[in-house]
Specification:
The complex is a heterotrimer of chains A (about 525), B (about 110) and C (about 120). Helix content of chain A is about 55%, strand content about 5%. Chain A contains 17 helices and 7 strands. A 7-stranded antiparallel beta sheet of chain A has the order 3-2-1-4-5-6-7, covered by helices on one side. Chain A is globular and about 85 Å long. Chain C has about 120 residues and is mainly alpha-helical. Chain C has a domain at about 50-120. Chain C is elongated and about 60 Å long. The chains are: A alpha+beta (about 525), B mainly alpha (about 110), C mainly alpha (about 120). At the A-B interface, helix 13 of A face helix 1 and helix 4 of B.
Chain lengths: ~525, ~110, ~120
C-alpha cells in the first residue's frame, strides 16, 4: 500500500501539482480577469437594465443566431457576457460594458479563464485533456486513500509537526497539510471525478439509452429540449418582465444565465437559470421557461431528485460559486494546502532516496531526472504563472494577438525553466537549479506590484478610489508569494552540509543548523 | 459561525492536551490519566457542540460546509501555533473559551 | 531449541517484496508482476466499476421511485466507490493472478446478473 502511494504520487505528482495550482488560482479567476483587464470598471447596474442592454445589442448584431446566452453582471463579474452561435456556425463571445451596452474597450486577455481551462483541459485538444485530467483525478483519489491507510499513526500524530528536523519535518509537513485539510482534499478529488462522469463512466447511460444519448439529457432536463427553428418570424418579447417573474418565483434569488432559443422566430423560448451565488448545488434543472413571443411563463422546473442534488451538490462544492469572500479565501488556502501536500510528497520521494547516495555524492540518472522534473514542475510553473501577468502588463494594449501571446509566454517560460533545470541538475547540482529559479520567481512576484503601478497605475488608483480592492489584492498576494519564494530560495544558499540522522537536535537558528543534503 | 469556530479551536486543544506527548509541550507536564480522559471527552464534546451551533444557525448545506471549514482552519491554526509557540496555543484556547459566551450572545441577537 | 517447539511460520498475507539481486536490481519477474497488477487495476477496475454502475442503473428504478435518468446519474456518481477498492485490492493481494481473479470474478457475476435480468426475466 505504501508502495502504491509513493509511486502513484510520483508518476502523477508533477501533473497534479499543475492541476492543483491552476485550480486554486481559478477560485479567483474573475478577480484575475479584472486585473488583466483593468480598463473594465465595475458599475452598479440592475439586472433589468443589463438584460435590456444585452437584448438590444444581440437584436442588432446577432438577429439570426440560433441561440443567445446572456450572463448578467454581478459582484465579481463587471461585464455582460454574451455567447451566441451565428448563422455561419461555431460560437462567438462578446463582453458588453454594463453601463454603455457596447462591447468593452479593454485589452484582450484570457485572464483567469486561462488558468481555469488549463486546470481541466491541460491545453490539449478536446477531449484528451479532460481524459488525462480525469485519470489524474482517479490516481489522486487512490493516492489519498492509500496515504490514509499507510499512515498508521494518523490519530496519534494528528497534531504533530516538528520543525527544523530535516526529512522528519518534511514528512510531518506532508502529513499536516494532508490530514488537517483531508475533508477538502477528499471532496475536491471525488467531485472532480463526478464532474466528468458522463464522459469517463458512460456505461450506465449506454445500457439504458443505447446510442440515443440526447434522450438522457432530455429526460434529465425536460425544460431544455430545444426545437429546431420555425421559418415564421416574430419579434422577441422583452426579457425584463421575465426577470421580475423569476424574482417572485425564486424568492429573491437572482438570475444567472439567460438562454434564448430561436430568437426572432415564432417558436422562440427563453430559459432563466439561477445565479449560483446563493445555493450550493449546481442546479441546471431548476429553470423557468417562457414563450419568447408572448413573454408568458410556460414551465417552472425544480431539480429536487436526491440523486441529481447529490451530483449537483458535488459539482457546486468543487466550483465554489456559492462562496462569499471569506469562504472563497478559505477555498484558496485549502487549495494551496493541497498543492503543498503534493509538493512536499515529491520532495520527500527524492529526499529519501537521495540519502542512500549521500556518501558517493553522485545521483543516478533516474534520481536526477526526478529532481529535474521536480524543479521544472514546481518552481518552473510558479515562474510561468507570474510571467503570464508580466506579459499582460508589458504587451501593447492594441496588439491584436496579445491574448495568444500571453499564453505563449506562459508556456515558453515553463519550457525554458525545464531546460534550465536540465542544465543545472545534470551539469551542476539540483540546489543551484532550485536556488536560481526560486530567486528569479521571488523577484518577479515581488516586483509585480511595481510593474502594475508603472504600467497600469491609473487603473489601480481609480479602483482604490472607488473602494474596489481587487487589483490591489492581487498585487499584495503576488508580493506575499514573492516573499515566501525568497524565503525558499534562501534555504538553498551555500553548499549542502552533509547528512545528519533525523534524531539529532538542532543547535540553533535555521541558518547555523547543520542541514541535511537536499 | 464565530462561535462554532472558537468552539472548534477549544475542542481541538482539549483533544491535543489529552495526548501525553503534546501535553508536555503545551503545559510543561503531561496530565494525570483521569484528567487526560476528561480532556478527551471535553474535546469531542465541544467539537460536537460546535457542529450543533452551526446547524441551528444555518441551512444544513451551508452549515456543514462552514463547519468543516472551521474545523480544518482551527486544526491548522492550532498545529501551526503549537509547533512554534506551544504556550501561546493554550493561551489562545483559554481566550477562545472566554469569548465563547460573548460570541453566543452575538449569535442569539443576530 | 527443539525444531518441534519452534513457532509455526505466520502465513504471509501481504504481497511478496521483490527479490533483489546482488547489485540491488529488481528482477524482471517482479517488474512484470507489478505491470500486471497495474493493468488489472486500470482495466479490471474500470470494468468492475462500469458493471456495477450498469447494474445500479438497471435495478434502482425497479426498487425505488426514480426515473431512468436519475438512476443513471446516481449509478455514475457512485461508480468511483467501486473503482477505488478494486485498485487497492490489486496492490494488497498476494499475487498478480489474484489481482486479476479478484476483479474478473465479481465482474462476471455482475455481468451475468445484469444479462439475466435484462434478457431472461
Amino acid at each position: 500500500m505504501a508502495w502504491l502511494h509513493t509511486w502513484a504520487g510520483l508518476v502523477f505528482g508533477w501533473l497534479l501539482f499543475a492541476i492543483f495550482l491552476t485550480g486554486t488560482l481559478s477560485y479567483f479567476k474573475e478577480e484575475i480577469t479584472q486585473w488583466t483587464q483593468p480598463e473594465i470598471v465595475p458599475h452598479e447596474v440592475s439586472d433589468a437594465v443589463a438584460a435590456e442592454r444585452a437584448q438590444q445589442w444581440l437584436q442588432a448584431n446577432a438577429p439570426d443566431a440560433k441561440r443567445w446566452f446572456i450572463r448578467l453582471p454581478d459582484e465579481r463579474n463587471p461585464d455582460i457576457a454574451l455567447t451566441f452561435n451565428p448563422a455561419k456556425g461555431g460560437f462567438e463571445q462578446k463582453s458588453l460594458d454594463s453601463v454603455s451596452g457596447q462591447p468593452v474597450q479593454a485589452r484582450e486577455s484570457m485572464g483567469g479563464e486561462f488558468f481555469y481551462r488549463f486546470h481541466f483541459q491541460l491545453q490539449m485538444p478536446h477531449p484528451w485533456g479532460r481524459w488525462l485530467a480525469s485519470v489524474a483525478a482517479m490516481v489522486m483519489f487512490v493516492a489519498l486513500i492509500s496515504g490514509i491507510i499507510t499512515h498508521k499513526k494518523i490519530f496519534k500524530e494528528f497534531f504533530t509537526f516538528r520543525p527544523r528536523k530535516g526529512q522528519r519535518t518534511w514528512l510531518d509537513g506532508h502529513n499536516a497539510v494532508a490530514v488537517l485539510i483531508l475533508p477538502f482534499h477528499l471532496m475536491i478529488t471525488y467531485s472532480s471525478l463526478v464532474i466528468f462522469m458522463t464522459m469517463v463512466m458512460p456505461a450506465s447511460i449506454l445500457t439504458t439509452y443505447g446510442s440515443n444519448t440526447s434522450a438522457f439529457f432530455d429526460d434529465l432536463f425536460p425544460a431544455f429540449k430545444s426545437a429546431p427553428p420555425v421559418s415564421e418570424a416574430a419579434p422577441l418579447a422583452s426579457i425584463v418582465p421575465m426577470l421580475e417573474v423569476a424574482t417572485q418565483k425564486w424568492d429573491g434569488s437572482r438570475v444567472g444565465l439567460i438562454t434564448v432559443n430561436n430568437p426572432g422566430k415564432a417558436n422562440a423560448t427563453v430559459a432563466l437559470g439561477r445565479n449560483g451565488a446563493d445555493h450550493i448545488p449546481h442546479e441546471p434543472g431548476t429553470a423557468l421557461m417562457f414563450n419568447g413571443v408572448t413573454g408568458e411563463l410556460t414551465q417552472q422546473s425544480s431539480m429536487t431528485a436526491a440523486s441529481l442534488l447529490l451530483a449537483g451538490g458535488m459539482y457546486g462544492l468543487h466550483m465554489g460559486h456559492f462562496a462569499g469572500p471569506l469562504l472563497r479565501w478559505l477555498y484558496f488556502l485549502a487549495g494551496i494546502g493541497g498543492t503543498a501536500m503534493i509538493a512536499t510528497g515529491l520532495v520527500i520521494w527524492l529526499g529519501k532516496r537521495r540519502l542512500k547516495h549521500a556518501k558517493s555524492g553522485v545521483l543516478p540518472f533516474e534520481l536526477k531526472l526526478v529532481e529535474m522534473l521536480n524543479v521544472a514542475s514546481m518552481s518552473g510553473l510558479m515562474l510561468a504563472v507570474v510571467s503570464f501577468f508580466w506579459a499582460n502588463r508589458l504587451l501593447p494594449v492594441s496588439f491584436a494577438a496579445r491574448s495568444d501571446w500571453e499564453v505563449k509566454t506562459f508556456f515558453c517560460v515553463w519550457g525554458l525553466a525545464l531546460l534550465h533545470a536540465f542544465g543545472r541538475v545534470f551539469f551542476r547540482d539540483g540546489r543551484t537549479a532550485w536556488r536560481e529559479q526560486l530567486t528569479l520567481a521571488a523577484a518577479l512576484y515581488c516586483l509585480l506590484p511595481v510593474l502594475d503601478m508603472v504600467t497600469a497605475g491609473s487603473y489601480l488608483w481609480a479602483s482604490l478610489k472607488q473602494g474596489q480592492w481587487t487589483l490591489a489584492a492581487l498585487d499584495l498576494t503576488a508580493l506575499a508569494t514573492g516573499v515566501f519564494l525568497a524565503w525558499g530560495a534562501l534555504r538553498f544558499r551555500g553548499e549542502a552540509l552533509g547528512v545528519i540522522a533525523s534524531k539529532q537536535t538542532p543547535t540553533g537558528s535555521n541558518r547555523t543548523t547543520v542541514q541535511e543534503a537536499r | 459561525m464565530l462561535l462554532a469556530t472558537l468552539l472548534c479551536y477549544v475542542g481541538f486543544t482539549a483533544l491535543c492536551l489529552s495526548m501525553n506527548r503534546h501535553a508536555e509541550d503545551l503545559l510543561g507536564a503531561s496530565l494525570s490519566f483521569a484528567r487526560s480522559r476528561a480532556a478527551r471527552w471535553l474535546g469531542w464534546g465541544v467539537l460536537a457542540l460546535s457542529l450543533w451551533v452551526a446547524l441551528v444557525s444555518l441551512s444544513v448545506g451551508q452549515a456543514l460546509v462552514q463547519w468543516f471549514a472551521a474545523l480544518m482552519g482551527s486544526a491548522f491554526v492550532l498545529v501551526f501555533v503549537m509547533s512554534y509557540w506551544p504556550r501561546l496555543a493554550v493561551s489562545l484556547a483559554a481566550i477562545g473559551a472566554v469569548l465563547c459566551p460573548v460570541a453566543a450572545c452575538f449569535q442569539l441577537l443576530a | 531449541m527443539d525444531a518441534a517447539m519452534a513457532p509455526a511460520p505466520v502465513p504471509e498475507k501481504r504481497p511478496r517484496a521483490p527479490k533483489k539481486s546482488a547489485a540491488g536490481e529488481v528482477s524482471m519477474r517482479w517488474r512484470l508482476a507489478v505491470a500486471s497488477r497495474v493493468l488489472a487495476a486500470v482495466i479490471g477496475g474500470y470494468l468492475l466499476a462500469s458493471l456495477a454502475s450498469v447494474c445500479l442503473a438497471y435495478f434502482l428504478p425497479l426498487l425505488f421511485q426514480s426515473s431512468r435518468a436519475e438512476a443513471a446519474v446516481l449509478s455514475m456518481t457512485l461508480s468511483f466507490l467501486f473503482y477505488l477498492p478494486a485498485v487497492l485490492w490489486c496492490f494488497a493481494c498476494r499475487t498478480a493472478l489474484r489481482a486479476w481473479l479478484g476483479l474478473l470474478g465479481p465482474s462476471a457475476v455482475l455481468g451475468a446478473v445484469y444479462a439475466c435480468a435484462r434478457w431472461l426475466v
